[in-house]
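worker-03 picked up job from queue 'complexes'. Input manifest follows; two sequence lines, order preserved.
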Amino acid sequence: MKRLVLLLATIAFAFGGAQAQRLIVGQGADAVSLSPHQTNDQPSARVMRQIYDTLVVQTEELELVPGLAESWEQIDDLTWEFSIRQGVTFHDGTPLMASDVKWTLDRLRNPETGAPAAFLVGFIDEIEVVDDHTVRITTKNPFVPMLAHLAHTATSILSEDAVTAAGEDYGTSVVIGTGPFSFVSWETASQIVLERNEDWWGGEVLPAEVVFRPITEGTVRSIELETGGIDIAYSLEPRDSARMADQPRIRLFEVETLSTNYIGFNAQKEPFDDVRVRQAINYALDSEIIVDVVYEGQGIVANSPISPQVFGAHQDLEPYGYDPERARTLLAEAGYADGFSTTLWTNDNPLRIQIAEIAQAQLGEVGIQVDVQVLEWSTYLAETAAGNHDMFILGWVTVTADADYGLYALFHSSQFGSPGNRTFWSNDRVDELLDQGRATEDADERMAIYREAQEIIAEEAPWIFLLITVETNGTRDNIEGFVAHPAGHHRLYNVSKN
Amino acid sequence: MIKYIARRILLIVPVMLGVSVIVFGIMHLTPGDPAILMLGEAAPEAELAALRTRLGLDEPAYVQYGLWLGRMLQLDFGRSIRSNRPVTAEISQRIGPTVELALLATLLAVVIGVPLGVISANRPNTAIDHGATVLAFGGLAMPVFWQGLMMILVFSLWLGWLPSSGRHGGWVYYVLPTVTLGTSAIAAITRMTRSTMLETLSQDFIRTARSKGVFDRSIIYRHALSNAMIPVVTVIGLQFGGLLSGAVITETIFSWPGIGRLAVDAIRAKDFPVVQAVVMVFAIMYAVVNLFVDVLYAFLDPRLRTRYS
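worker-03 finished. Artifact:
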């Protein structure tokens, strides 16, 4: 009898153990490709984060710590030397060499590759292999945020041999990295299966297997979590997370993202070339209503162009606040006492359309007649890049969590149009500060530089600063160790299932 | 008969050619640039140009069409712009689940719709007939996304009987998507069977049969139903064709890895090679189903058989 009990207990344990190590994650869309040089979308990045490693790792607290590079040294303003970790192997058993690092970054920045994330390494002038485990990167200009860029999943290190051998099939049927999980299979729109890399240099990997399932409908994703069909659900919709808030078997993780939403003006067009008009519109629109109604409270009103989590964010700026009286006065001072007519463009994102409608109603109250126009996404980007707009709604994710990424492309005069500055607003002092920010090593000095830049930007108001979004992820209550990353690509090697 | 089938198959060729011109034309005339869609909000012009060159989008449209048509004739559909996966691999992975679902939904619709229609027609204006009519109109009027979500709410969340999404893990995963997809087809087939049965039952030969004292059941199932089936078969064929290409919403709600979702994702990303190939596949499937229905007519209706023999 004892033996039987022991046997049953062993079977139960073995079964429970095996089951415990398979982690099923639901996200809103399938990955596009698992080659970091083919795509730059979030669902793909969330999977790639598990398969690949980057030279530098950005922790959940947004600190930059050694990854495949165990140390680095800045030799002069333009030169950095990275020591590559020894004894690291790719999932196919071949060792990681400095030449793989050079090859990967060269391929990423090569225009012929046509990589969507090539801009991330646009600062690189040359990469040199010093020895098997040392590379030297020379930048075109001094570029302090380099480490944050080298922590982005798009700069994940690939195996030159594996990518070359797989040719066009790399990223879909062949995927080789050095990360905590290796690629097993991918049935498109159904599931991606990864298994534990026993030899991972970073230590023990808890789940034996991770399965990523695309579940497009937000409500269905939440029901899958509630019914135990999945263990972790990413990006729950506000109404679903509100419903699950008091369920004992579900744990919710709210994380302030690095993503900001804004309405931009065409600052070179009348009447938006007048700062008083831009400020007036900032006063006329109640961002709190947008957070409460459109985002159902899942956001915080923005006081600056970047999320408070980003290095360099100015935490003490006062948001404009809702003050229609002041808006009317400013408009009158600018010569628009009777208001004016204008257009507000958006793409077909339902949240943005709602924002546009609220803006239309509220600006109408101060005499500004707004015509809302919805454009197809790529047309929208092309037309705003060409400067054919009056006002437009967009978002920006400062993925590197460094102010340079969140400000340079959007406010520097060298970035007009498609590189990111679609307001065509510029300010000599801000240009100067943003250039200095890239070249200044001292963290306090950089912080001061970016604070000043944000003060000018807030005062000059080329945007209506709307909100910073808050994302809710959920897990079953038997999941331990899940920590949400503000950039959205959460690491899973340390997550266990009891 | 064989000549008739051969002629019908040959007719598919110009139809396909027409479809290829239309789909290529629409994809290139509608706004949208795949390079911008891939690179997003921050994309210097030089990078956009490099990507367009890599994707072959800088060639004139007629050259792109010619190249595409030439490759397609060799059954080479190229690679997806977005994922770089071969289009044939994309489609072959996704077509199976859709065909499975459409077949099951059609089967369900026939098994429920035909008997329900016959019963209704046989007892017109009774409670059963009215009940079936209400059900049928309900089925036709109910939006698929609403029905799908309600079924998930009841059978997955409240009762916990059935899984709400996915396809891995056995027959239980097929129940909700099949019923959701099949509901409107059940309704359409019920209505069509009812009206053609009513019409047939009022014809002279049925009256003759009745006057000869033929059993009621025999009249309905042997004499009337076989005559009433021709329009019903057309509806079944059309429904099946429609379910094949129209399962997008069901596939989205239940995260079913079908070809409808592939088509929608590809259209949104302006993934030309995938959209063009998927539409061609839809067109071929539709044409084949139509051909099959026409041939089936000949078997059901001896008059057609003699005309083409």
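worker-03 released lock.
Chain A touches chain B through 47 residues (CB under 8 Å).
Residues 4-20 of chain A have pLDDT under 50 and may be disordered.
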